[in-house]
Specification:
Blueprint (H helix, E strand, L loop, with lengths): L7 E12 L6 E12 L3 E5 L6 H8 L7 E6 L2 E2 L6 H10 E4 L13 H12 L5 H14 L16 H13 L5 E5 L7 H18 L2 E6 L2 H7 L2 E6 L2 E7 H6 L4 H8 L6 H6 L18 E6 L2 E5 L1 H12 L2
Parallel strand pairs: 3-8, 3-9, 6-7, 7-8
Antiparallel strand pairs: 1-2, 1-4, 4-5, 9-10, 10-12, 11-12
Length: 314
């Protein structure tokens, strides 16, 4: 992606998301800040429970923010919104969910599932226009018009995820939160769904926040990667920069976990395990610091110095 005219389309600023109250309170997202530029794919990567889905759900306003704010196109979209603004945000920002079986209404036909957003926002002139839109999008995701009269249980996981994508795209959104959209699918189907997302991005100028736990998948699809661990950002960099210079130990552990296709090399591989005890933050507190080249790393002053040496003295 050319960086000449980067326009920030979504900005997350000092976001906290807390579940529960009092002694039972659990901070799922801790002081997270990052921007997403128009037309890019930013991937949010971390292990299960790291808070990445929570951030995605905060953007589409399923999870309320406990502190901080989320801005879309310069307008604050977290917290209370007027009905008009609320509807505008829902239409412009869509979500593709992780489990294609659970996110589709089993009792509704595919036609109704895809039309639901059109009905709610009255995005069609008449029934003929609605039907044309639905048939066009179902063909674009690689299904057939005769599939429209069927129900979700009659489809495979990959086909159901295509329906989920069609349901989002038919709303003509600008921004899509794709929450692990391929983790529930067979490996053979994954590339097809990723290619489909890339195709729509090219044709419609979409911006994606792509949530995943597997770095090998995001390498193929992302412009930049945000690495998150236990609700905090550890590292942000452009994709190839991150793979060439993984600086934070947690990022290194994620990269070392990527499987090697060769079984002999896979057996010999040294797995790097991240242990938080390797940091001493008792006196010198850590922060997310830009060390140059658009590369941000979480660490205290001595660690940041060390990371700079590794990155720029090569």
């Amino acid at each position: 992606m050319e960086n000449t005219e980067k326009k920030v389309i979504l900005s997350i600023q000092n976001l906290d998301v807390v579940f529960g109250h009092g002694k039972k309170a659990f901070k799922a997202v801790d002081n997270v800040s990052f921007d997403i530029y128009k037309g890019e794919t930013l991937s949010l990567v971390g292990e299960s429970g790291s808070g990445k889905t929570t951030i995605g759900r905060a953007i589409v306003r399923i999870n309320p923010c406990s502190a901080g704010a989320i801005f879309y196109d310069g307008k604050k979209i977290s917290g209370k919104l007027s009905r008009k603004d609320d509807r505008e945000v829902i239409r412009k920002i869509q979500m593709i969910f992780q489990d294609p079986a659970a996110s589709l209404n089993e009792r509704a036909t595919i036609e109704y599932i895809i039309s639901e957003g059109l009905y709610n926002f009255h995005l069609y002139k008449d029934d003929k226009d609605r039907m044309e839109k639905v048939e066009k999008i179902i063909e674009e995701v690689g299904l057939l018009p005769e599939h429209l009269t069927r129900y979700p249980h009659e489809f495979s996981g990959g086909q159901r995820q295509r329906v989920g994508i069609a349901r989002s795209i038919v709303m003509e959104p600008e921004f899509i939160v794709a929450d692990e959209p391929i983790s529930a699918l067979d490996v053979s189907i994954r590339a097809q769904v990723l290619n489909l997302l890339k195709k729509f991005q090219k044709e419609r100028g979409l911006t994606y926040l792509f949530i995943a736990h597997d770095l090998s998948i995001v390498r193929f699809i992302s412009d930049r990667i945000v690495v998150i661990y236990k609700g905090r950002i550890m590292e942000i960099a452009e994709t190839e920069e991150l793979f060439a210079y993984p600086l934070h130990p947690y990022t290194k552990s994620l990269i070392s976990a990527i499987p090697t296709p060769d079984p002999i090399l896979e057996k010999q591989k040294h797995l790097f395990v991240y242990d938080t005890d390797m940091h001493d933050y008792s006196v010198d507190k850590p922060d997310l610091v830009d060390i140059g080249n658009g590369h941000m790393v979480f660490g205290n002053a001595p660690e940041i110095e060390e990371y700079k040496k590794i990155r720029f003295n090569n």
